[in-house]
Design brief:
Blueprint: H1 2-15, E1 19-25, E2 34-41, H2 61-68, E3 71-77, E4 80-88, E5 93-96, E6 108-111
Antiparallel strand pairs: 1-2, 2-4, 3-4, 5-6
Helix pairs in contact: 1-2
Length: 114
């Protein structure tokens, strides 16, 4: 949710244009488990990553995207551009549970990791 919020906010604040949000969920073998978020706007101006200092109230958006997403980038799209990021959801995590002999309990628990 934070990645979506940052990309949409950046598009609206820095371009003054409406933005289009697209989410794609990997279906092919090579991209299974990957979520791709794209935000398109009508501005051809490329994104400009900045570094916020101390108490600055803005300038951290693309730093957050860079730190949280597995990949991100941008491309020209028509007269504007699209900024995208991808998150690999990963395989299920299996954890072992140790019990005394004879006690009924499943031997492992499976959880999905985001």
């Amino acid at each position: 949710m934070l990645l979506i919020s940052e990309l949409v906010t950046n598009a609206v604040v820095h371009t003054g244009c409406p933005a289009v949000l697209r989410m794609l969920f990997g279906a092919g073998a090579a991209e299974a488990g990957t979520v791709r978020v794209e935000v398109a706007d009508a501005s051809a101006r490329p994104p400009r990553p900045r570094h916020a200092d101390g108490d600055d109230t803005n300038g951290r958006g693309l730093e957050l995207v860079d730190g949280l997403a597995d990949r991100w980038g941008w491309q020209r799209e028509g007269a504007g551009k699209s900024i995208w990021c991808e998150v690999d959801r990963g395989a299920p995590v299996v954890t072992g549970v140790v019990r005394e002999p004879g006690a009924y309990a499943p031997s492992c628990a499976v959880t999905n990791r985001a």
